[in-house]
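dumping this here before i forget
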Amino acid sequence: MLIKNLLSHNDENSFYDKKQELDISKKIGKAKFIKHICALSNSNPENNSFILIGIEDETDKIIGTDFFDDSKIQNLINAYLNNPPKIQYENVRFPKLPRYKVVGLITIHPSEKVCSLKKNAWKYKRNTVFYRRGSNSMPLSEAIELTNSNKELVEAIEKNASNNIKLTLDSVFEFINSHSDEYNPRYEVFKEQFILCWAGKQKIIDGETYYSRVDIELINEQVRLFYSSLDEVKITYNEQSFIVTEYISLGIDKKETYYPLEKTIIHFKDNGKHDIVHEFLFEPPQYDQTILQHIYENNNTIISKIESEEPLSVLEHQDVEKLPKSYLICYLNGFTDAKDQLKKAKNYIKNLDDKTTYIKYKEVMRVLRKVKYY
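structure:
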C-alpha cells in the first residue's frame, strides 16, 4: 500500500525515487545508488524517504525485480558516506507478479545531519554533498542547511498506507490458499500484533527436519522477509522471535553435507516494532587439493569449449549441471579464478531448456556475494 501511494505521485520527487533494477556490483551502479541515498537523506532531515526497485521508468508499471537479500547493504552506505542514514531494504510481494519477483522498497530514515561522500565513488569526489531538486540528485558547491519540506506530506502517505483488519485477513487467506497442502502453509501471531505466515516443503535428513521452497511473509507489513527456491532451512520460533537458519549442501560426487550458511532472527518487540538480525555462520569445507585440481581443470575445459562453441560430449553435458557448485567449492578452497570462470558460462547455462542449473548458478553467485561481504 505504501508503494502504491508513492506511485500515485507519478513523478519522482524530493522524497522518493524509482528504479527498474538495482545493480551495485559495478562501480557506476554503486556510485549512483550512494548518490541517491545521500541526496534523499539531505532533502528529508525529519521524515523517511524512499527508493522503489522494480518499477518501469516511463510508465510506472510494476514489473518487479529479483529477490534481494544482501544484509550488508547498510555497511556499503556506512563505508561511503559521512553521517550515513539508517536504511532498510524490504522485498514486497505483489499478487500479479511471478512468484520469483518482488518490488524492492528502500526506506531511508532521517538522520538530521548533513550527509556527504566519505571517499571517491566513480566520478563523484570525496566530500561532495548531494541534494534533491525535484527528481534529480544534484551536487552542491555551497554550504547546505537542512530544511523540512516533506514531513507532513510523507506522514500523510504513510498513515494512508497503514493496514486495516480486512486487508490483514485477506492477506492471510491469500497466503494460505496460494500454497498447496504439501507446503503446509500456516501462520503465527507474535506479541498479539504481528502476523507471520510461512510455508515450506518438509524433508527429514539424518533425523533433522529441513524445509525447501520456503515462503515467509510478515502480513502486517505486506513484506516477504525470506525466500528460498532451492536452499534448505531449519525453522524455530518462540514467543518473541522467529528464527530461520539457512543451509547449503556441498560435496564432491554424491557425498554431500549440509553446512549452515546464515541465520535470520526476526525479533518482535512490545512497542509494536520488530528487528531483523542476520548472523553469518558459514565455514567453508576443505577438500583434497589434488581432487579439486582435477575438477577445476575439467571445468575449465568445458568453459573453453563453450566459449569456442565446440560441441560437448554426453559426460560434459552432465558435468555442466555440476559447474555452479563445483566451481563454488574450488573458489572456497583457494582457486580464486573459479568465480570468473563460472561467469563465462552464464549465458550458456541461462539458455538451457532445463532451468535448474541456472537457478543453481544464481544461488551460487548469491553465496559468493555473501562470502565477499562477510
